[in-house]
Amino acid sequence: MQRLLRLTGLLVLAGFVLAATTCVRRPGALEQVERSGVLRVATVNSATTYYLGAEGPTGFEYDLAQGFASQIGARLEVVVVPDRAAIMRAVDQGRAQLGAGLALSDARRERVRFTPPYLSSELEAVYRQYTQKPTELADLSGDLVLPADTALADWLRHHRPGIDFKVDTHANTEELMSKIAAGDLKATIANADIVAMNQRYYPKLRVGFTLAEVHQRMAWALSERDRRHGHNRLYNKAVAYLETVKDNGRVNILHDRYFGHAARLGFVGGAEFARQVKKRLDHWKSYFKQAGQQYGLDWRLLAAVGYQESRWNEKAISPTAVRGIMMLTRSTAKRMGVANRRDPQQSIDGGAHYLVELRKRLPEAVKPPDRTWFAMAAYNIGLGHVLDARRLLEADGRDPNVWVNLREALGWLSEKRYLDNTRYGYAQGKQAAAYVSDIRAYYDILTWMSNGQERAKPDALAKQPAASSADQAASEDEPDISITSPAF
Questions:
Q1: 485, 174 contact by CB (below 8 A)
Q2: pLDDT per residue over 349-399, tens digit each?
Q3: Rounded CA gap, 77 and 40, in Å?
Q4: Chain-centre distance for alpha carbon 430
Q5: Domain check: are 38 and 183 in the same one?
Q6: What is the pLDDT of residues 297-331, one digit of tens each?
Q7: Secondary element (H or E) of residue 438
Q8: Known catalytic residue: 309?
Q9: Helix locations, 311-422, DSSP H
């Protein structure tokens, strides 16, 4: 009898335990965020997603996720993982509520729940100058190497099984392009933005063709397990947020911020820049660093401006009598306290001082990092013309405080139909827009070359975070730019 009672008691206890465990409700992702006040986003370290700049976290995906976290009243916490497969694992295991930096593929859809895509990019076949140019996928068979975690590998296996390719489990896309430039690999396929960025660092990289059959479509990943449990609130909010930032142009603004200047320089300009870095920069680097420290600027930005202005030639002089490394006018030099514009130290100091003054005089509504690019445009054509372009944007009902809009409006300053609505009249605004893009490209290269663990920071003026003819122009024995690549 006692044995029966003990057995009955154990069964009753087991029943209570079972009931308790089955009644515990698994909180949904948004509920987790609301309880902790933190949105955890898993992603990889890369030029297109998230990295630590000189002034803190930055990157396209970081900024996009930061906006979403702010909208739902949470603090963003980035969970850095080694590869894109680990992004999906982190989301599936609940270590992150959201995964960023993933391209859509059928294989990945089986593991996580994707939002609709918010960005689509072309994919380009990359090869080395002076080797056989590929014109279609079949030309790459046997020579193609891809990173192991790319969505393109899944697509090739399912849709082009006849293409023989290898995956490198230890390298990312940028490392593969470095190996192609060095002659160690023959070809890869990569996002067009990344290709354009790396052509500046490795002038021997060439684009064979653009992949017509497929684009890289980026989307956020959320837990499929949450969907099965009926937890859709975070997913619905993420979808609504992404639709909003696509519709209001925020995605385009961020894309321009990080990649809009990438293709401007090209491989020939990158090769010439590399030559001048070796030939001239060391003569003036200490002056750029001193001025940067004095005025709270990144010395590499000042050096980029100096290269754009004079190619670091202290004897440079223009037909309009601006001169010196920073090409100061006589009146500007006088206002900045520069007695001798041809003195390299005085010129660099005066240029830095002038950039800071221009930045201060911009309307407060212009925020970093766009404030930097506005100041550079003003350095080139004058603050009055930049303010004219802002006014034209306002009259057109467009946001006058973002660079992607101002860059377009600068071009209007040379068009007759707009001149009656300006205070300062005609200006070569398209030249100013190109001027800024070139400086951004030079600045990026200097950042890579000077510190392999640091990418260009979002706002270099801010102390606070905030094919054939060109082939002929480049020499075969001309070395690629020597850089130490960050561990993306």
A1: yes
A2: 999 999 999 999 999 999 999 999 999 999 998 999 999 999 999 999 999
A3: 5
A4: 23
A5: no
A6: 999 999 999 999 999 999 988 766 789 999 998 99
A7: helix 429-450
A8: yes
A9: 330-335, 344-361, 370-381, 383-395, 403-412, 416-419
The neighbouring-strand residues paired with 38 are: 75
Q: How far is CA 266 from its chain centroid?
A: 17
Out of 61, 124, 174, 309, pick the active-site residue: 309
CA separation, residue 19 to residues 12, 23, 24, 91, 143 (Å): 11, 6, 9, 28, 59
How many domains are there within the chain? Answer: 3
Residues 286, 315 within the same domain: yes
Task: Judge contact between 417 and 450, C-beta under 8 A.
Answer: no
Show the tokens assigned to 331: 């009146």
Burial of 181 (0-12, 13-18, 19+ CB in 10 A): buried
Is 187 part of any domain? yes
The parent domain of residue 137 ranges over 123-214
Closest-CA residue to 210 (of 228, 232, 225, 195) = 195
Asked if residue 286 belongs to a domain, the reply is yes
- pTM for the structure as a whole: 0.68
CA gap 104, 387 in Å, rounded: 42
- Which residue is it, tokens 């010439």? 272
